Amino acid sequence: MTVPMPGPPPRPADPQELVSRAMASLDDLRDRPLAEHVEAFERVHTALGDALAAGSSGAA
Asked: CA-CA distance, 29 to 7, in Å (whole number)?
């Protein structure tokens, strides 16, 4: 019986890519109802925080 070997650890997210994706999610904000804007900004805020955390963990 063979034991499966674990694969390589997941590659950390590229902080610049996270920021780019977060900002791109606002591209169509003008066309969306005003009621959806707060939720969109909150998602971007969370994504930017994640990018900041990923950048600081990769700098060590």
From this structure: 39
